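> agent: user asked for a holo structure of the chain below bound to LM6KSONS. Plan: (1) validate sequence alphabet, (2) canonicalize SMILES, (3) run complex prediction with ligand conditioning, (4) return tokens. Step 1... ok. Step 2... ok. Step 3 dispatched.
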Amino acid sequence: MATRMDLDGKPIKPMTICMIGAGGFIGSHLCEKLMAETPHKVLALDVYNDKIRHLLEPDSLPWAGRIQFHRLNIKHDSRLEGLIKMADLTINLAAICTPADYNTRPLDTIYSNFIDALPVVKYCSENNKRLIHFSTCEVYGKTVGSFLPKDSPLRQDPAYYVLKEDTSPCIFGSIEKQRWSYACAKQLIERLIYAEGAENGLEFTIVRPFNWIGPRMDFIPGIDGPSEGVPRVLACFSNNLLRHEPLKLVDGGQSQRTFVYIKDAIEAVLLMMENPDRANGQIFNVGNPNNEVTVRQLAEMMTEVYTKVSGEPALQVPTIDVSSKEFYGEGYDDSDKRIPDMTIINRQLGWNPKTSLWDLLESTLTYQHRTYAEAVKKSMVKPVAS
Ligand SMILES: NC(=O)c1ccc[n+]([C@@H]2O[C@H](COP(=O)([O-])OP(=O)(O)OC[C@H]3O[C@@H](n4cnc5c(N)ncnc54)[C@H](O)[C@@H]3O)[C@@H](O)[C@H]2O)c1
Ligand SMILES: O=c1ccn([C@@H]2O[C@H](COP(=O)(O)OP(=O)(O)O[C@H]3OC[C@](O)(CO)[C@H]3O)[C@@H](O)[C@H]2O)c(=O)[nH]1
């Protein structure tokens, strides 16, 4: 493998990475990239490894010696500090991060996103190890513009909705809106990491992902996850499409999101990892401002793309409206709009996303169809009564 160069033309030394939550959606793509394109070693920590099993087995894989899986729960495992000490860099991805949990399991959500991350920050700080911590775009909460009258022309002014790392406020709902338990826990861990940097010299980078989507995201209920489970929107809508049922639009599907392809986003993470001088001390939005849709538009586009890739006709009535109380339960609330400002990541790392929403849905839904269509079909065949 040729020596890799950083953005300033210096050779990149191979490093050992302690990746916590490596078995999840983002972790699996990051491990894949690191094994295929870099000489770096990964200590992959997670409770599960299904999504990275293809990288671990068989032993004869070309990168076999560079990835090691450690099955552990960071809540209570004394091996954590030793593994962080063995690495040059720690990346923390571990979290409860599905909105259906935020208002129904707020304690687990707060513990997972704040309390459980504390030892990771402490061990990095005490052992002078660099930390890349995964936060979320949800720390911005609602836009300033959402509080203006519906017909205010200022709502069209980017100053009232574009989300900037260094100037936008974090605007959450009231405490009884438990949806914000996740965002608030993420915000506090960001503040703690920032303070460790300021007071104790911790070398850190904070990543705020804006709806990264692609293959292996979450699960299909009843196939590789619980039947009653509610994953994030990509998997919810994929599940509806695979089962030929209408896509459920929460509160009319009026909320807006920008979606970025996981493979584009992973490029940004690799730049952060390999360019510490440019990434340390920074908070980065990572998203695609050009891929904005309402959730209703997303449902329509996914229906069209799925028809193309599966060859199956769309339903006569492709969507139905459902209230957030019915879908998520008491205490749900929503972010109205999420457009990332790209100035900082552009300036520091020269990164820009490439993939259009249509293209990323086409490759992702091709994967969903190939991976799940047969299993879903089988699960839907009802046993004949004797
Ligand atoms: N995917 C996105 O678009 C997105 C958006 C915003 C923020 N994020 C953040 O990025 C990170 C990764 O997200 P993801 O989409 O890959 O989620 P994911 O749920 O697929 O991955 C998280 C992984 O962490 C593991 N984990 C959780 N608690 C653990 C514990 N106590 N011990 C060991 N492992 C544990 C889980 O088993 C899982 O494999 C999260 O911190 C999330 O908040 C992701
Ligand atoms: O069947 C469904 C499922 C969801 N919705 C609505 O879609 C919007 C997006 O939902 P989702 O992707 O599940 O989650 P959010 O974008 O709200 O939050 C995530 O953002 C980043 C992250 O931090 C981690 O991924 C997480 O908190 C939303 O408006 C739902 O109501 C739907 O209509 N139908």
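> agent: step 4 complete. Summary for user: The pocket of LM6KSONS (ligand 2) is lined by residues 97, 99, 136-138, 182, 211, 232-233, 236, 248-250, 253, 255, 257, 295, 334-335 (CB under 6 Å). The CA atoms of residues 41 and 66 lie 5 Å apart.
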